[in-house]
Amino acid sequence: MPTGEVKDVDIVRSACRPCPLCGSEAVEVVMSCTDHFVSGETFPVCACKSCGFHFTGGVPADGEMGRYYQSCDYISHSDTSRGLVNKAYHLVRWFMLREKSGLVSHFTGKRHGRVLDYGAGTGYFANRMKQVGWEAEAVEPGDAARAFAFAHFGIKMRVPDDLTGFAPGSFDCVTLWHVLEHISDLHDKMDCFSRLLSADGLLVLALPNRTSYDARHYGNAWAAWDVPRHLWHFAPSDVLRLGKAHGFSLVEMLPMHFDAFYISMMSEKGRGARLPLLRGLAVGTAALMRTMANKERSSSLIYVMKKK
Ligand SMILES: [Zn+2]
Q1: Cα gap 166→134, rounded to integer Å
Q2: Angle at 55 between CA 54 and CA 61, to 5 degrees
Q3: Is 3 part of any domain?
Q4: How far is the CA of 235 from the centre of ligand 1 (A)?
Q5: Residues sharing a CB contact under 8 Å with residue 293, sequence separation 6 or more, in sequence order
Q6: Residue 192 Cα to ligand 1 middle (Å)
Q7: How far is the CA of 19 from the centre of ligand 1 (A)?
Q8: What average pLDDT is seen over the chain?
Q9: b/e sequence 271-303, b meaning 16+ C-beta within 10 Å
Q10: In this structure, is the dihedral angle defined by the CA atoms of residues 4, 297, 258 and 190, taken in order, positive or negative?
């Protein structure tokens, strides 16, 4: 369990919901985390005493979450190249797009198929899949991101409500690249993805790993807590339980080596350290060494799952 001093947690926000994975109401606040990217506000991270799952407490209602995504520094949805961290991010993104498209082709065993990218951001992955010969559908709730994808790639992305318009078994693969941790209706969406996949279809989830080396190193300053945008904080065993509850079994778990560097730099920046890039590189290197020995220490993991 990550460490982090519990203090200054807003009374209203300290009320944790029942555990979304096992339903237990035996839940405790284990740390408080600050939103360094957008609001500067502090939120509790809660842990289930029964199964150990971690999740953000005191989360704003869905209708109020939009303002927590509005920042030039929240680069998941932006396309700026300012600053060293952003430049490195964009270089890694170029490399990772190739890795991700290769992964989908490899594990589906298909050179051409139908993929749904849910939470597609600005559409880079959907565009990459089209470039390599796949039919790609993309769903993205953000208006600005959808407009970007249309302007730059000519991709007409859909909104989440449009999912009901797809026939069952429509896709060979559904991908969520660092998205599931943002989704409030976790179980409904998992059922929906299962319905949309063909009988031998694959669900690919990329998620931060709260049991990673860097998560333990930074405690409550770990940037990938990313409250309140990250609602759920998964350990590998949590993802397997969630998958099993919705009829999925694990095919492969793969480490994402670059994320430790990026998250470590952002963690250093968030806690106001001097020379955050150098410090982040040092911690990222240490994390990479640990991950080489044990992939479950990786900052983020890709889970390839199939319907049972
Ligand atoms: Zn639980």
Answers
A1: 17
A2: 175
A3: no
A4: 12
A5: none
A6: 22
A7: 5
A8: 89
A9: beeeebbebbbebbeebbebbeeebbbbbbbbb
A10: negative
- The rounded distance, in Å, linking the Cα atoms of 220 and 36 is 12
Alpha carbons 89 and 73: distance in angstroms, whole number: 12
CA of 18 to the centre of ligand 1 (A): 8
Q: Check residue 61 and give its pLDDT.
A: 84
Domain tally, the chain: 1
Is residue 7 in some structural domain? Answer: no
C-alpha span between 140 and 157 (Å, rounded): 6
Residue 4 lies in a domain: no
Cα–Cα distance between 129 and 100 in angstroms, integer? 9
**Cα 241 to ligand 1 centre (Å):** 10
Range of the domain at 196: 12-307
Q: Give the tens place of pLDDT for each residue, 243-278.
A: 999 999 999 999 998 889 889 999 999 989 889 889
Residues in the chain: 308
What gap in Å lies between CA 19 and CA 25, rounded to an integer?
6
Residue ranges in the chain assigned as alpha helix (H):
84-108, 124-131, 143-153, 186-196, 213-218, 236-245, 259-270, 276-293
CA of 299 to the centre of ligand 1 (A): 22
Q: How far is the CA of 6 from the centre of ligand 1 (A)?
A: 20
Is residue 8 pLDDT above 60, yes or no?
no
Distance 12 CA to ligand 1 centre (A): 22
CATH code for position 251:
3.40.50.150
Q: What letter would DSSP give residue 65?
A: G
CA of 265 to the centre of ligand 1 (A): 31
